[in-house]
UniProtKB/TrEMBL annotation:
<protein>
    <submittedName>
        <fullName>Aminoglycoside phosphotransferase</fullName>
    </submittedName>
</protein>
<dbReference type="InterPro" id="IPR050249">
    <property type="entry name" value="Pseudomonas-type_ThrB"/>
</dbReference>
<dbReference type="GO" id="GO:0004413">
    <property type="term" value="F:homoserine kinase activity"/>
</dbReference>
<comment type="similarity">
    <text>Belongs to the pseudomonas-type ThrB family.</text>
</comment>
<keyword id="KW-0808">Transferase</keyword>
<dbReference type="Pfam" id="PF01636">
    <property type="entry name" value="APH"/>
</dbReference>
<dbReference type="GO" id="GO:0009088">
    <property type="term" value="P:threonine biosynthetic process"/>
</dbReference>
<dbReference type="InterPro" id="IPR002575">
    <property type="entry name" value="Aminoglycoside_PTrfase"/>
</dbReference>
<dbReference type="InterPro" id="IPR011009">
    <property type="entry name" value="Kinase-like_dom_sf"/>
</dbReference>
<feature type="domain" description="Aminoglycoside phosphotransferase">
    <location>
        <begin position="32"/>
        <end position="239"/>
    </location>
</feature>
Length: 338
């Protein structure tokens, strides 16, 4: 949690949000939260999510843009958690604070259950890729209703965070700029770039009758589709929900089935696949920046400092992230299905 947000949050803010959504105090429980305060509540035997963010991170129009995109994907037949209005009929409720405002949004609770180790298999990998391919295919036809609601571009947000939370002499700043420059050298077109989830990891979807139900679009932004794939791979390959004795074989197995599913719904070029290692390294750089947002790094314990140093080492390394040739694997997958 960003420290400036955490320091401003009070019980009075939560009480006001509860009032505006007519929530029974006995039905609400905290789910924690990474960048926002997140709660679960029940009304008329239906479960919902209450998320309280802050204008330090998102403007009201920015969140309205998220909700508009959710509605678009839902209308395209994708299973996503839609937002629900407050008792005043607002999709976003603004609650004044000392520095800016807190923003309360409520969503339908995703159907299904959390992903478990038992679910972690080739069938899931393929469905995962297929779902992301559907988002990328759908967003090619997305046009927002109002320029004021347009979501941010991924690189704009990254640069702002780095300059705000890292010291001017931090070695990660030039590394981050280098990673950004490499990825942004890709050509932008409706076939390579668009509004997408940008945080599609295994803790942001449930499985409902064997199908994916996606939620938490808080980070949705305009980015390269290959970068969006890289974000998913970063979490799925390094943090699987079960152990694999032969990690190199697991990496290949996941990638093959994930991309097989993806290519059912969307196309991507070999030239884009070449950027996957860089995209994963960029994610490590962003986690390094976020760690500075959320923590006083001068007060870290040994384990946290080691993790921070590891993030920096991986992001700065010129070596491939994984013992896998994504391009060769992609060629093999592409050939097998055509």
């Amino acid at each position: 949690m960003i420290r400036e947000i955490k320091e401003q949050f009070t019980e009075e803010i939560l009480t006001e949000a509860i009032k505006r959504y007519d929530i029974n105090n006995d039905s609400i429980r905290s789910l924690g939260g990474y960048e926002s305060f997140v709660y679960e509540y029940q009304k008329n035997n239906v479960f919902y999510i209450l998320k309280i963010s802050h204008t330090i991170r998102r403007s009201i129009n920015n969140i309205r843009g998220e909700i508009e995109f959710l509605n678009f994907l839902s209308n395209k037949g994708l299973a996503v958690s839609n937002a629900v209005p407050s008792t005043r009929g607002n999709m976003v409720e603004e609650i004044a604070a000392d520095n800016g405002s807190f923003l309360a949004i409520s969503y339908e609770m995703a159907l299904g259950n959390e992903v478990s180790g038992d679910d972690w298999n080739e069938s899931l990998y393929e469905k995962w890729g297929e779902f992301l391919g559907k988002i990328h295919h759908a967003t090619k036809g997305y046009e927002g209703s109002n320029p004021a609601l347009k979501r941010q571009a991924w690189d704009q947000e990254v640069q702002l965070k780095a300059e705000k939370y890292l010291r001017p002499d931090d070695a990660m700043i030039p590394i981050l700029k280098e990673r950004l420059a490499k990825l942004t050298s890709l050509p932008k077109s409706k076939d390579t770039y668009g509004l997408t989830h940008t945080d599609f990891h295994q803790s942001n979807f449930y499985l409902h009758n064997g199908h994916i139900y996606l939620f938490d679009f808080d980070d949705c932004s305009y980015t390269y589709f290959i970068h969006d794939i890289g974000i998913t791979l970063c979490y799925a390959l390094f943090c699987p929900f079960k152990e694999f004795e032969n990690k190199a074989e697991y990496y290949k197995l996941f990638f093959r089935h994930f991309m097989k599913g993806y290519l059912k719904e969307n196309t991507i070029q070999e030239e884009e696949i070449e950027y996957l290692h860089d995209s994963i390294k960029l994610r490590y750089a962003l986690m390094y920046v976020y760690f500075h947002q959320a923590n006083d790094v001068s007060q870290l314990d040994e384990a946290s400092m080691n993790w921070l140093q590891e993030l920096q080492r991986v992001a700065a390394s010129g070596d491939p992230m994984l013992p896998i040739d994504f391009v060769q694997e992609f060629k093999s997958i592409y050939t097998s299905i055509h």
